[in-house]
Amino acid sequence: MKTIYKKLLFLFLLLPFTVLAQNTLKGTVVDKATGQPIPGVNVNVQGAPSGASTGFDGNYQLSNVKNGNKIVVSFIGYKTETIEYTGQKTLNVTLEEDTNQLKEVVVQVGYGTVKKKDATGSVSQIAAKDFNKGINVTPETLISGRIAGVNVVGGGAPGAKADIRIRGGSSLSASNEPLIVLDGLPLTNDVPNGATSILSTIDPNDIESFTVLKDASAAAIYGSRAASGVIVITTKKGSKGGVKVNFSSQVGINTVANQVDVLNADQFRALVNEKGSPAQKALLGTANTNWQDEIFHTALTTNNNISVSGALFDKLPVRLSVGNVDNPGILRNTSFERTTTSISLNPVLFDNHLKIDINGNLAFGKNQFQDENAVIGSAIGFDPTQSVYEEGSRYGGYFEWLEANGNVPLLPARNPVARLNQDNRRATSTRKWGNVRLDYKFHFFEDLRAVVEAGIDRFDSNGNTTVSTESILGYQPKPFNGPDYVNYGNYSKYTDMLQNKNLNAYFNYVKDLGKFKVDATAGYNYQLFQRERYQSGELRQPNPNTDVITSPDINLQSYFGRVNLGYDSRYLATVNYRRDGSSRFSEKYRWGNFGGVALAWNVAEEAFLKDNETLSSLKLRFGYGTTGQQDISAAYDYLRRVTLGTINTQYIFGGKVYSTARPEGYNENIKWEELAEMNIGIDFGFLNDKITGSVNYFDKKSSDLLADVVVPDGANIRNQGTYNIGSVRTKGVEFSIQSDVIKNDNLTWNVAFNTTYIDQKIDNLGTTVPGFQGYLTGDNIAGGSGNQIQVNSVGYAPRSFLVYEQLYDANKKPIAGAYVDRNGDGKIDASDRYRFHKPTADYTFGLFSTLNYKKFDFTMNWRASLGNYIFDNVSSNLGYSDAALRRDTDLSNVSADYLNTGFKYEDNGTQRYLSNYYIKDASFIKLDNITLGYTFDKNLLKAASLRFTAGVQNVFVLTKYNGLDPERFNGIDNNVYPRARTFLFGVNASF
Fold this sequence. Notes:
Helix content is 8%, strand content 46%. The protein is mostly beta strands. The strands form 12 sheets. It has a 22-stranded antiparallel beta barrel. A hairpin with a 3-residue loop joins strand 27 (547-567) and strand 28 (571-582). The protein is globular, with a radius of gyration of 31 Å.
């Protein structure tokens, strides 16, 4: 019944559109050079208040046309055609590119727009027609590899967050995530428990364009949150004209592309029989189990979206979109499902003086998770001679390692299949966000506009974890060999709420004074971030640690201004300023001042180059600016605070329970981290802009770094905290070029290429003592206890690997326990560790190719990375024989790298797992996707045009690295959720 009501509601929403659709004049608009249909072309009766626009297939329908009317056909980048209507029923139009108009492309910048040719900073834009093809579950994948200086590294789990870095980031411990502005609403990078990422709630089908502000002169207008760059996302809007309905559906078959290389059952038996004790040999089973095959499988992803756009009553542009993606993971019992609804209303009132943009969005999420690191780690290391199941097992029939008396041992790995099926982790989430923008052009002073934007973003989640009463991981308070044995399983639940409120108010003044143009903006910004969480603790265990956590509010307030000056479109200047305040700092350091200046010379507009078809575009740019960073985990670190203890830190005196109070460490002098950046750029175009591109050189320095560092004993009541120390300098070069290699009536071929070089080093880490190697950082590695293998050291790249230098024999085989005594003191200890390579690449490359032949289209997207290294933590943790033979009561598998080294011991005082032998060259070339499409026009189906697609994502990887995947954002390869190889099929229908 609910389904029927939903369908009736949808038809009711369509009713106003269908009433207005009157088909009088029909036709198709195509490109003169290629013959391809052009979507989005405006077709109007000259002087009439409304009109139509072409659909996906280039077709249009225009009503109420009379003899003698002038039909105006226009589209950005093409010359406008005006044709007299003489009663014909069909009017097909051919449009010719206007190279001068192509230079008028408008890009989004902070609190406004600017023509691309008038932009002074380093700004890149990519529109929907140029997005990466395929099943894009989350928006980040649309631009992966497409923009110079922007690196996007996604994960393998369903709906996983992608790590985005613009020009390598700028901080050590504060956030390096770019600021994301969605339809004028700045987003937070925080997500509630049970959700994957803030962008995973957005349907990529609703996105119109990405604009990336890369240098500080462009991003400074966003001030406090722009130190790592800004990504402005603009969603699709309604338009005046006839109703357009677009439906897209995709199916993807997700397969396992690669597995971790471990010993198979026969190899493992040979190892145990050769080196194991009699007790260990007796443990060998008779099975031949590939545990990775058992936990991974082929999964089916579906992605559907329908959108309706047009103008209600020929006056109110509206767009309504509904989408659903169901993405089961290749790891069993993991999944991501999202249902989205978005609506935009864009009325223009009072004779075009008041523009209103209203965007409303609702996203529902369903996620199923696993303890991925533990499950995948168990599958890699579990004994391959054991069966998945064991007859008579009290743990759901699954094989588990047990003591002789039936009790549960502490150390052995647990059956990974059992973990998947007996540990149920689910979460649901609801995100509601929207923005209202009022843009009023004063009637009495039309050069002046007042703009007010108000937005809210609320993200709620709730989830639970249920462990079966038949799971070995369940709560078992009594030993199995005792009289009162029982397995309670486990159960816990949580809720989480994040809320972000935003207000922008500013004035904009634009005036043309002959050849001079002035564009000035001044305004105020307010943003408030709130969070409240509930955690139940383990409810089936005594005294669950139930807690409600209300995070301190974070408040940001700013005053900003910008002036753009231009003379004759040749000489351009931009000056901006922003004064930011953050509640994370004390009143003494609360406010920071940031600004930028940028200059540009449009050389192509000079008389000696104007109308030159060979060098059709040339612009020189220079920019310098400062931005601030305050995004750290500590909300009020400058305050002296006392924290009440939990249920685990209570004392009983005289029969009464008292909670403890613990003073917290603090830093009253914590202040803004500052970034200063210089950018020099050249934009060029050849052969009437058949070839276009840009080159940028940037040099940026972050100072007063907000870093999490160790505190000397006695200097504070904590031994580690956030302090302003040192500086990081990043230099680099970006190059991008694109060209219409072939362009004729039947065949077009467009190629876009970009590359980036980055050199990043730490300049200063404050006051240190002799022999100080740096601050250890990064995730703890598997192997030993609490070991870290990355370090921040002066003169080296952030997160460089800190390792021992391995010695090799004459056959280039590593010698167990033999390392170089680098300081020559006659012994091997921690002072002999040295910095050896880094996880970030020196060079990154992207190549995008689109080939169209008649109604066929073929696209492919390549990426490459050079100079990045990875720590093979799988081999360092499991690449020695004792990993299999630790105990006489259980067995574990080992990495196939053991066959290369023959290592026996885990450590034995040699720190084997910190050897540079495990630092591997992870440079790669990847073919991310290929897609083949074919378009049927309305000759096949009069009601709609159809486009069918087929393709492959994650096609192949070329690399020297023998591990699972060379692309790891943190540089550590250990128990990674693998990226799937997806075979996809899709259909797009436009009505």
